[in-house]
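Write out the bound-state structure for zinc ion.
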Amino acid sequence: MKSNWKEATAKKLKGDLLQLRVYTSRLLGNNEDLVMHGGGNTSVKIREKNIFGEEEDILYVKGSGWDLGTIEAAGFAPVKLKALHQLADLDTLTDVEMVKYQRMAMTNPSAPNPSVEAILHAIIPYTFVDHTHADAVVTVTNTPGGKKRIQQIYGKNMLIIPYVMPGFILAKKIYEMTKGIDWDKLDGMILMNHGVFTFDHDPKASYEKMIDIVAKAEKYLKKQGANPIKGSKKGKIDGLQIAQIRNELAKIRKSPVLVKVNNSPAATAFSNLPNVKDITGRGPLTPDHIIRTKRTPVVIGDQPAKDLAKYVKDYISYFKKNNTGEQTLLDQAPRWAVLPGKGTLAFGPTVKHTTIIEDISRHTQKAIYQSEHLGGWTALGKADLFEMEYWSLEQAKLKKAGAPKAMQGKVAIVTGAASGIGKACVESLVAQGAVVAGLDIAPSIDNLFSQKEVIGIRCDVTNMKQLKSAIAQTVAQFGGIDMLVSNAGIFPKSSRIADMDEKVWDRSLHINVSSHQRLIQLLVSYMALGFDPAIVIVGSKNVPAPGPGAAAYSVAKAGLTQLGRVAAMELGGQGIRVNMVHPNAVYDTAIWTKEVLSARAKHYGLTVEEYKTNNMLKVEVTSKDVADLIIAMLGKTFGKITGAQVPIDGGNDRVI
Ligand code: ZN
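---
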């Protein structure tokens, strides 16, 4: 661990205390070995003049919901220091009262709620206070004799605080422990099973004390031979097993989740540890993680359903044992899993969730492994962890997200995703909360979508090997497949039957029909394990209303429609719905350049505008309109419909 303080950057802040606080908070927040995903908190005390011209000491403390790595000045809640000192003097204080009185003492009512540790920050008599959950330090505390080791590393100038619940109880404990103490003699505070506090009147000194304390713990671990795990060969992942696990999880949670596979050399080596079930069953790295990861992961062998059912049963008995009668049982599904010999899995309703869980689990694995060299991983007891998991102030952090989107946790594959209807479908699916694998032969697919919810996969849909690889990638990234928009297609050059080029004909059938059959064939076993699985096939107006010169296209699209009808019959028993759309005259696609459009319009003696709206309703049909219909067909509205064909063309007399 090294200091990232840059004198030149700090100088630019011209001694502005709040800006310096932002600067060093970000330095802490951008180091995963110190804090992750909203963990830790920092503060600065500033004397200010209020509107009446009176001087007041204000504690600017990290606001709840902000992340240290990206925090801004607006992320700090300004609270009157005097009020916080008065709260610290109380014998007891409920969470509800604490939140209420802290808010009442704020000088800006639109600022976020202060961190749950605001009172603790207030009673530390230094301008800058830094708090992290540093891996190395907590790893040492989470061992038998952890306190002795901490004393050995840091000597008598380190204040060691036994574990108590964060919030008022912790602040009160430290308040009592430090009465009459000479703060200037302290290098910092280490909270057993929790983290580290440093403080100074100078921002750089407070930050660098933190770095120094962590560096010492890292050095100690190294000296004890507690090195990070050596990676092994990457675990082999069975996609169908992952989809089956995801299916079981959805049953427990009553909603779909994403599953992110981690079969990196380190995760695989960890999963291979002979005592992995025992060591992962003891508890998390720091109590704050429990709201994200639950107390333990599940270890899944050959029978996922059985292992998950056992996890749920154990969770319920843990709840019953610790419930004081005031708590309501949360969902019982695990948040991560170990697959012995294969790696680990992270579960969550969104990519953001699975990323957080994967990051936390990776650091937890490292800490558990290292602590095994120090006598064994010793996490907090179940009762303390339960109190943290069911603490209303922690649960409030999770509720900030708001109502879930309609397709949250669902996974879709869209073919022909680089342009037109396919691209519009990807965008609409993401807007509805789904994650998407967008397949296209065009190289532009690689970087077309910047959202983390989309993976662009270059794929020739007529190539079986490439299709299989695209499915494997999708399952490794998201855990399964619920929806397919079978859209890839070509519009071959116009040719009458008498003049048909054999290659043009065959290519149209290959891409417009056969590739769809192959993809559906490969997906059936995955989709049968999906959540409300549905397929939408993109047909064409040419199916009900063909035209001369377009046999290669019309015949293929008619065949594709027939494929969809048969699929609806064959797959209904597995709960998979198959419906079809027949778009017409969608001109905002790659084929329809300005030149082509005006040439066609001229051919019919129409203006471009008239040509675009040449239908019953006199409306232009866009890719987005078609995508919206497809998304509706994939969703609840069409939940009891299969085998339907819906034209989307503004009304066409030959189709009606
Ligand atoms: Zn903490």
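---
The chain has a mean pLDDT of 95.
The CA atoms of residues 117 and 576 lie 50 Å apart.
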